[in-house]
Amino acid sequence: MLKKQQKKSISPEIIKDKNEDKIIESKTKLKDEFESSLLDLARVTRVTAGGKQLRFRAVIVIGNKNGKIGLGVAKGRDVSQGVEKATRLAKKKFIEIPFVADTIPYEVEAKFGPARVLLKPQTRGRGLVAGGVVRVICQLAGIRNISSKLLSRTRNKLNIARATIKALEKLKSYNPVIKNN
After folding, report:
1. CATH number, position 125
2. What is the pLDDT of residues 8-64, one digit of tens each?
3. Which of 122, 131, 124 is nearest to 164 (CA)?
C-alpha cells in the first residue's frame, strides 16, 4: 500500500516538472526576442550606524532592434541580483521609436540632470555616428543611420542613457504635409 501512495505522490511532481519546463521554454522565447546590454556596473556603499553596506548598481538596456527599447536601473547585494532586477525593470519600461528609412524622423534634443544629448537623422549608408552609451542604445533600438552629440561635460553613463531615452521618447511619427501653392 505504501508503494501505491508513493507512486501517486511522484506522478504529480513529474507533471509539475513538465509544466515548469514549458514555462521556462516560453520565457526563453521572450528573452530571445530582445537583446540586452550592461551599460554600467557600480559599487555603491551606504554608511549606516552599523557600518558600510555594499551594493551593486546595474544599468541595463534591452531592445529588439525593431523600434522597442527599455532602460532598467537596480541595485542588489551581488552583481547577478542587480543585473536580474535591472533586466526585469527594463522589460516593464518599453518605449516605441518611429522610423523613417532606418533613421529618426527629425532632429531632437533632450536633457536629463546635467546630461544633454542631441540626435540628428542621417542619410542612408552614413551609419551610426555616436559614441559610448548613445551608440549602444541606438543599436539595440534598431536605428542604423543617426548622428549624435553630447552637449554637456558629464560622463555619467546613467544620466546620458536617460537623456537619450528621453530624446527618443520625444519622437512622434512623421507625416510630411505637402502644400499646394
Report:
1. 3.30.230.10
2. 444 444 444 444 444 444 343 445 689 999 999 999 999 999 999 999 999 999 999
3. 131
